[in-house]
């Protein structure tokens, strides 16, 4: 039985992805791990797969995306790295994987994921909800339940698929949706790759919802999951083994949300301390912390989100500027300077 695992990131998250693959391989050295990278390395930095923990790499620009330059310009970094996940899933299915587990790069595994692999004997598609118990406090209702209603019931930092007809159908559908509609626009009912998956249990057969408290523990469910380290050293969540923790929003925001919902004596703070040190150890000094090849025009000027949204909504601009990253005479960047009034109009 072949189990493949993949994650999707830009080089600014390479340090986190290294922590992830290190923890996955600790418990599952036989799993084949794919890095899906939608980026290009900056000058002075070399990405050498043989020096990494990943077994394979897929580049975003190679995942059969038509007119890649125009396509990726429409996306910010989060939108882009999530938009390729469907195509990557299809690619790995075609490669012959019997079971596939997707994990976000800011996840770390603390115990074997055997229960996930076993669940794929019974189900074709596995999802984990953000919450599995109702909140009681109004603040938690707003932070957690209402946010899940807006951004997605299931957290797509995790997905598991079996290589069967239902798994293929879901992957094909997801890839098609994400190729054209993977944006951070909750006002339109879309939140990158995640909100789409609210439909999965209704659209596809054999979908399993994993409610084990040790899966996908994060700030959004800490109000009901007590993380502690036992006397024997086991890491637990509500007395279940902590399988993986989602270290979302590394930095002040993550710290704030953790403190808001974890009890003062929770051992979750020990996990965060470990994770911050691990990320630091896997960080390359020569790799800019916010690097993304597609963040700037060719002249180095940062691309405003409004520029991307305008290009996304205007077919005439897409037809006129096949490479919107270009600078200089006849470029989209020049058009924006010459048409400030029009470019500042709200899009529909």
UniProtKB/TrEMBL annotation:
Protein name per Swiss-Prot or TrEMBL: Glycosyl transferase
Taxonomic superkingdom: Bacteria
Lineage, uppermost ranks: Bacteria, Pseudomonadati, Pseudomonadota, Alphaproteobacteria, Hyphomicrobiales
InterPro entries noted in UniProt: Nucleotide-diphossugar_trans
């Amino acid at each position: 039985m072949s189990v493949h695992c993949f994650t999707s990131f830009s080089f600014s998250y390479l340090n986190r992805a290294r922590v992830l693959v290190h923890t996955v391989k600790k418990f599952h050295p036989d799993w084949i791990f794919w890095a899906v990278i939608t980026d290009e390395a900056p000058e002075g930095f070399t990405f050498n797969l043989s020096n990494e923990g990943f077994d394979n790499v897929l580049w975003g620009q190679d995942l059969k995306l038509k007119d890649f330059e125009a396509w990726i310009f429409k996306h910010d970094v989060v939108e882009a790295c999530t938009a390729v996940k469907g195509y990557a899933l299809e690619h790995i299915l075609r490669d012959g994987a019997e079971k596939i587990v997707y994990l976000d790069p800011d996840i770390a595994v603390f115990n074997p994921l055997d229960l996930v692999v076993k669940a794929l004997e019974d189900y074709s598609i596995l999802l984990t909800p953000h919450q599995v118990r109702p909140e009681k406090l109004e603040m938690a209702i707003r932070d957690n339940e209402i946010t899940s209603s807006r951004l997605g019931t299931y957290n797509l930092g995790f997905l598991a698929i079996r290589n069967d007809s239902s798994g293929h159908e879901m992957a094909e559908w997801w890839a098609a949706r994400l190729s054209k509609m993977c944006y951070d626009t909750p006002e339109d009912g879309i939140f990158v790759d995640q909100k789409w998956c609210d439909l999965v249990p209704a659209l596809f057969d054999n979908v399993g919802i994993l409610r084990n408290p040790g899966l996908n523990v994060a700030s959004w469910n800490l109000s009901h999951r007590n993380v502690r380290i036992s006397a024997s050293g086991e890491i637990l969540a509500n007395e279940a083994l902590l399988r993986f923790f989602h270290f979302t929003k590394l930095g002040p925001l993550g710290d704030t949300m953790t403190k808001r919902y974890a009890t003062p004596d929770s051992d979750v703070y020990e996990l965060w301390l470990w994770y911050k040190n691990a990320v630091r150890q896997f960080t390359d000094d020569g790799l800019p912390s916010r690097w993304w090849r597609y963040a700037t025009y060719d002249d180095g000027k940062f691309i405003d989100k409004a520029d991307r949204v305008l290009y996304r909504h205007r077919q005439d601009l897409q037809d006129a500027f096949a490479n919107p990253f270009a600078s200089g005479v006849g470029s989209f960047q020049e058009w924006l300077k010459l048409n400030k009034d029009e470019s500042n109009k709200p899009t529909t």
